[in-house]
Amino acid sequence: MLPSNRKNFPKDKFKFLSFELPPALKSPNVACFVIGESLSFFGSWMTQIALVWLVYQLTNSAILVGIAGFTNQAMGLVITPIVGVLLDRWNLRYVLLTTQLTSIVLSSTLTFLTLSDRINVTWIIIIGTLQGTVKAFDLPARQVIIPRLVDKKADIYSAMAFHSFLINTAKFVSPMIGGLLIASSGAASCFLVDSISYLPFLSAILTIQVNPVLRNLSERKTKIWQNLKEGFVFSYEFLPIKSVLALQIVICFMAMTHVNLMPIFAKEILNGDAKTMGFLMTASALGSIVSGIYLVSRKQAIGLEDIVARSSTILGLSLILFSRINNLEICLVFMFIIGMNTTLTLASISNFLQLIIVDENKRGRVTSIFTTGFLGVLPFGNLFFGGLADRIGVTNALLFGGACCIVGAYFFSRKLSTIKRIVHPIYVDMGIVT
């Protein structure tokens, strides 16, 4: 019996480990893509932090910080919905290759301008506008392609959760390193790291295998504006999508903008510097990675709607309490909670959307409408809260944002039972539930 037990032990152990691993992690195709893109996000987050700090250092103006955040993403509101139509027609591999190469050029330009002492607010706004244009194509293309990397529809949730987890891992590491690099070597070092971070993702894009999608020829012949209208009508008439997109807009406008207020909060409320800002952003990102681990460990889609309702409520309460505190240690605890619940809300919404889009030919359009919440709504939130912080102070601005998040969560919670009833047949068809 002993030899037999020894023989079976490795197999049993492997079975246990295999059970613990998310299905997407077992696919080299998915793993290659999301690991590559997480490295590129590492550089992007560092650049975002460095640009905000650089603007505030050059101008000492909360309004100009808001304007810089606005220009970096304002193009998203204009072109992202149209991008969705194009993504439903174009080759996603070529789109992603183009966006990564362009991003390398822009980050390298920032590095050169900063090192040569030619950087100013005008250059930051110009390059920020170009970066926003690239993101309008890049971010929705990344999300649209992921469901086309998996072999089974039931694995889409796992792939999206793994995608969110690795992105938030990058988000956790980059603020800490970015704050230290800014303090020791200046913002140019962050821009240089960003330029290099796109190279692994370029390699992944060339390596992955994308499952073909049967295109509807009649839709391809239809005018772009007609396709665009169809995407908005589909999103509006399908209650689950309409509800989560409405809440996402509230969260992006009222809560996500706290990132741009952190340099002001660190300096004026905590009497700190770039390291202080780095600590705050790292605490937020640590919360994000914890939420990512939680979503990956769930391995199922059921209950995402409940997570969205709870986490958006906790996010609003945390922002209100954070705004009333001027102790660094306590602020770090609340930034952890804020980061965790921001990611839980937005990642759950993203994963939920990708699961319930039953028409593959509309995936690009619906995903782009979701991305507009980041690239279109967020810049207006940055602009609004930059001006609001200048008028009533950064603490009162954060309190106002938190209160609005609670209101949005309340209205979403009232629709939960209807949403669950509508999506249940979709989960049955996908084999997620019986």
From TrEMBL:
Protein location: Cell membrane
Gene3D superfamilies, per the entry: MFS general substrate transporter like domains
UniProt keyword annotations, A-Z: Cell membrane, Membrane, Transmembrane, Transmembrane helix, Transport
Keyword Cell membrane among record annotations: yes
InterPro entries linked: Bacilysin_exporter_BacE_put, MFS_trans_sf, TM_effector
Topological relation to the membrane, as annotated: Multi-pass membrane protein
Annotated TM spans: 30-56, 62-87, 94-115, 160-183, 195-214, 234-256, 276-295, 307-326, 332-357, 369-388, 394-412
PANTHER family assigned to the protein according to its UniProt record, in alphabetical order: INTEGRAL MEMBRANE EFFLUX PROTEIN-RELATED, STAPHYLOFERRIN A TRANSPORTER
Protein name as it appears in the record: MFS transporter
Organism: Nostoc paludosum FACHB-159
